[in-house]
Each structure stands twice: as C-alpha cells, then as structure tokens.
Amino acid sequence: MSTSMEIARKVADAVLYEGYLLYPYRASATKNQARWQFGVLVPPAYTATAEHPACQTECLLEAREDAVLRIGLRFLQVRVRTVERAEGSGYRPVPALEVAGETYLTFDEAVERERDTVVSLAELLAAERIYEVGHDTTRTVEPLPAAPGGGPSGRIVREDRRVDARLAVRAERIDGPYGLVKLRVRVENTTEWADAEASRDEALRSSLIAAHTLLAVEGGAFVSLLDPPAWAAEAARSCRNLRTWPVLAGQEGRRDVMLSAPIILYDYPSIAQESPGELFDSTEIDELLSLRTLTLTEAEKREARATDPRAAEIIDRVGDLPPEVLEQLHGAVHCLRPAERENLPWWDPGADRAVSPETDSVVVGGVTLARGSGVRLLPGRGTSHARRADAHDMFLAGRRATVEAVFLDVDGVRHLAVTLDDDPGADLQREQGRFLYFSPDEVEPLSGGKEDG
Description:
Elements: H1 3-16, E1 54-87, E2 90-94, E3 96-99, E4 102-105, E5 109-120, H2 121-126, E6 129-135, E7 138-143, E8 154-160, E9 163-173, E10 180-189, H3 200-204, E11 209-223, H4 233-237, E12 245-248, E13 257-261, H5 286-294, H6 298-307, H7 309-319, H8 323-328, H9 338-342, E14 362-364, E15 367-369, E16 374-377, H10 391-394, E17 400-408, E18 414-420, H11 426-432, E19 436-438, E20 443-445, E21 450-451
C-alpha cells in the first residue's frame, strides 16, 4: 500500500465510524437511540425517512488511456445483536442479562464491508462498468457463561441481514486541449424491501452505513475540485456530486488518491498525531470527549463497557491516559518554515511578513496601543459594534485588561487580543494563546499606554 493510500485510509476509517457510538457511549443515552447519521443508503423501496438509496461522485482526472484505477467501496453493515435468556427448553429475547457479575445488552453492532476493484481507464472510457456487491444473511450464536446451577444462562445471537448494492463506474473525455477525464462513481443500495413504513432501525439493518469511496490512480493525477487550476475551473463546476464530497487525500502535494466521503472535508485531511485513538465523534474535540469520559460514574462506565466492545476500549484507554498524553490533546502549535510561508494563500496572516501581531500597534484616542498596554473594556461602544452588546460582553464592561496582540483581518480591520487583569487564569490563557477580542473603538486607553508620536 502506498504512503498516500495509507494516510487516506486512516481518514476513511474515521469517516467509517463517525457517529458509530456517541458519548457517553451507553446504550441508554438518548443520542445513541438514533445512530448512524452519515452516508446512509437505504433500500430503494424504503420511503419512511428522507434518506436516499444512492450517492454519486464525479471528479476530474489527468490521465493517459493506459492509466489504471483502483476503486474501493467501503461501508458498515449493521449486525443485529440480541441477548436471549434461557427459559425452560428455549430462549427469550431480553434487553439485558446479568451473568456472573457481567452485564450483556441487546444492542446492534456493525461490521466493515469493502469491495475493491481494479480497472483500466480505457475500459471505463469504452463503457460503464457495473460491479455487484452482496452479503448474504448470516447467524451466529455465542453461549453465555453457565448459570450458578450449572445450566445455560443465556446466549447472544448475532445476525447479518441480506444487503445488495451496485457500484457503477464510467469515464468520459472532456473536450478541450488539456486531456481531462471526468470520472463518475455511483453507489446504489439494491436490496429488496417489502415494508415501506418500517422503522428506521429495521431499515438500517439492510442499509449501507457511512458509505464512501477511495479512488487511486497509476499513470495519472486527480484534480482538486475545491481549488482547481484556472484551466480546469469550468470542468470542476460541471461535476455533479450527490451526498458525497470528493477531496484529494494522502501525502500533501501528491494527486494519486481521492477520498469521496459523506461529510465535508478539505483537501489532504489528516488525523491529528496527538490523538491516542478513535472516539467515534470526529466533529468533537479529543480533549473534551476524554475529559467528559473521565467524569462518568462507575455505573455508567459498566454500562458503556457492556454496550459495545469499542466503547469498553474507549473507557479503558481514557482511564489509563498519562497526564503528558492528556496535555497533548489541548492542541499543538505548528510553526511555519520560510518556504511554507511563501506558498501560503493571500488570506493567511502568515503569508504577510509585514504583519506581526506581537509588535504591531494601533492608535486609540491619541494613544498608541500595543502588546502590554492597559485598556478599559467598553463592549458595544460605537455604532458598528452595537450588535456585540450581548450578555457575555456586558459582564466585561468597565473591566481592566492588558493588550496581548494586535491582529489584522483580511478586510484590513484591526482587532485587539486582550486578557483580563483580574482573571487568575490570565497566565494560562497567555501561554495557550486564548484571548478575548475587541475592536479599537471598544476600548479606552489607561495610563501607561504609549503616547502617540
């Protein structure tokens, strides 16, 4: 596997399990009653929700006809997990069962599915290629530990329902001097379904969950749809993507891998090196989720462990995080090397060598304010900032503060970053770069400011 594909798969795995199980990781939690919100492709005959049976990716490719494409369809399939209690000569489904101090819960799991195909660009230019994807119904039974009397206590029954899907791939040349190719990848759930009004939970068991595609090319290069070169901009606008967003992935600068995901990403997404493991909610912050998990009671942790093996792994991992690892989750400062500064977009402050927030200044009432200047906060003062006079700002009215930096935004407007003088956490905020921000006309210079001129 290439380095680019390795990096892309790590991001794809995060997409695959986005929303699999949310904090507080317990089956009884309200948010875990409506799971799997991303990339859900339901059977075409199921119409009780607004979810769709298909998604489509269109992207651009610079390639010769002898180029080779690798197309990977990946999704989760819901696995029904039912706990059954032994009763007489049979078994009865129950929500939960406690055996020898362990709790077993009825709660659906999921299994990863993947279909890889390799095809030449020449074949795709000649005709659409159809690939069938199917998984038969399976059923497994796991006996639970024996009851105190020696007889059976119960069992866990796991069932995969039948799921059928179709992957359709086609390529076409775009007229013009640049030799561009438009690649179309359509994924469709084709599972037969009888009850159009069934519950969503039932339909999910025959759906593709978090469906996405990983595309790789040998002998060619993908074109960014987010930031296409000028000569490809019109072609990029013509791409029609339905419920999926293709972005360049893998090693930054390379264009041999593209990830088309059901969530909006930027080109070359990556997993933060500081992250110690999956938390199943990549739109959240690792530090926040880890700290919240540490606050769970022992009873809540027991339920989380019984809910899902992946939840049990989170509880154990977070509980064992050493302080230095937890501290790393607070964030990281990435310094720009000179070569990187020159390649930054115009709107990035690091691209302008004339901008220096720690030494820049601004004149207010004839007084030059810079780092270290004292000011009194007057939030909402001035007609252009009346909208800021909300409850939070009103608590700060009249408070003394120290200017930490002067920032310039893309519209040429200056902003003061300040810390409160009477805030015992000011040193920590200064160290972490977390400030309050006000416009120059929302502060009043105090004695000690530098006189202008």
